[in-house]
Structures are given as structure tokens and as C-alpha cells.
Amino acid sequence: TEWTRMRLQALLGVAVVVVLALMAGGVWSVVSMLTGSSPNNDAASTSPPSAQDQLADKQLPEAPLEAAQPGTLSSGETGTLEMPAPMEVGEVGVATGYPHTPEGALAQLAAINTTALSSASVRVAQDVITHWAASGGPTAESWSGVQGLAALLESAGMSSDAQNTITIAVEPKMGFIKGTVGDDFVIPCIDFIITATTATGQPQQVAAADCQRMVWQEGRWVIGEGDEPAPAPSLWPGSQASFDAGYQWLEVPQS
How open is the CA angle 33-166-138, to the nearest 5 degrees? Predict the structure, then answer.
């Protein structure tokens, strides 16, 4: 059956809803978010949350799904975040070598997500998180990137390795730093444009946002221990809603 524009938009919309649910700690699927091991509910109820957990759990504004679709652009202005350029290619082809700064953490998260989702392969996405998450962080089964990609491919009626069937382009367009705890813990939030193109269809686009705990470990940024943070709103870059939410344009300095 021809993949119509409406069907693909619906597919991408479903993927965004699932992604947001996962990042909220719910069910990119219906699987509960775990940190690699089942939490101890008794301990959680008696121990006060750490500064890192408080920052991660801080709620951000919500947005309707329609706000993630291409729409009216604003004539207003917002700031710019300069993303450092990578210095090398690391494990699983993920760009790395970013500096020990909040902007470096944001750039590393963008590289992790871009490599995983653009692969159009659940296996590759699982390999990415296995190499780019700290112990106690998201796993090959629990990471929102893996489950979101699986949900998108499943909705399209494709296999879990669809590299020759669908092209997924992932472009970080806007972002902000939700906060830091010390020098080694940062929660960056990135608003991506995801473009999906099938072998016979027209490219379709949707915005999808991601926030992660990034920790500096052994000379690089990785996704850290704990539940994934509360979600940032998925907003079409350049819309007034994206400006109002505090997003800034992401810019890589030209060499």
C-alpha cells in the first residue's frame, strides 16, 4: 500500500508521543523505565532525593502534539548556543572529543542520539547506548532511543533493521541547558527535527525533544545513572512556542 502523507505523519506523531512518555519515566513503549536494576521502593520512600535527581525530576512545560508538526514560524528572536565541534570518532561511530563544559555535554548527547536514531537499526541503537551509558544508566532494553526507534519501525511495518527501507535523518536544531550540579553533571535538552523517508514516499518531518543526565567520566561525556529526566516539550524549531519555552538555536562554529 502506498505510504500516504497522512499515514507517515500519523506514524511520526505516534513515535513522538511514545518518546515523550518514555522520557517522562512512563512507558518511545509500554515497558517501565528502569535504571538497569529494579529500584528499591522502601529506600526511595525514606531517602531524600539528591540534587541531581531534583534537577532531573523538575517538570518542564508541556506541549500538544500539534506543536511538534511543521507550522507557523515566528519573526521574533532567541539566543544561540555554540556547540563545540567533535575532535574524533568514538565507539560505534559516535562523534566525540567534546570539552568538559555544559555545551560539550549537549553536543555529545546530540551525537549519541543522531547516531542511534539515524541508523534505522534497533541493533545499532542498542550498541550505541551500551557503549555510551554509565553503569546504572539506560540499557539496551530500557533506553528511550532504542524503544522510540523500535516503535517507529514497528508502526511502519518494518523489521528492526530497516537501513535499506527507510532513511531517518536526525538534526539537532535548538536546545538549552536545564541545569548543572558541579562540573561533572549536566542535563542538556535538545529539540531535533526528525525526517523520515521511505523508498517510495516523500520525506516527512516532526520535532522531538530529549533531555538526558550527562556525566563526565574517564575523559568524556556519557549518559549517566538514574531515570531519564522529565521531558522537554517537542516544539517545531523557530515557532513562537519554541522561543517561549526557552529554546535557543544550536550552532556549530565553522572551522
Answer: 20
Query: 109: part of which helix (H) or strand (E)?
Result: helix 102-118
Band the pLDDT of 252: cuts 50, 70, 90: confident
User: Measured in whole angstroms, how far is the alpha carbon of residue 145 from the centre of its chain?
Assistant: 7
The amino acid at 255:
S
Q: By three-state DSSP, how is residue 96 classified?
A: strand
Distance of CA 136 to the CA centre of its chain: 18
Cβ atoms 81, 105 nearer than 8 A: no
Q: Helices 144-155 and 5-23, interaxial angle, to 10°?
A: 160
pLDDT in tens, 31-62: 222 222 333 334 444 578 899 999 999 999 98
Instruction: Please give the full DSSP string across 136-194, using - where no structure is assigned.
Output: TS--TTT-HHHHHHHHHHHHTT--SB-TTTEEEEEEEEEEEEEEESSSSEEEEEEEEEE
Confidence of residue 186 (pLDDT cuts 50, 70, 90): very high
- Taking the C-alpha atoms of residue 68 and residue 23, their distance in angstroms, rounded to an integer, is 16
Angle at 208 between CA 245 and CA 98, to 5 degrees: 85
Phi, psi of 102 (to 5 degrees): -55, -40
- Environment class of residue 240 by beta-carbon count within 10 Å: exposed (0-12), middle (13-18) or buried (19+)? middle
| Side chain identity, residue 51 | A
CA angle, 20 then 109 then 56, to 5°? 55
C-alpha cell at 68: 511538534
**Rounded to whole angstroms, how far apart are CA atoms 69 and 210?**
16
Q: How far is residue 134's CA from residue 36's CA, in Å, rounded to a whole number?
A: 10
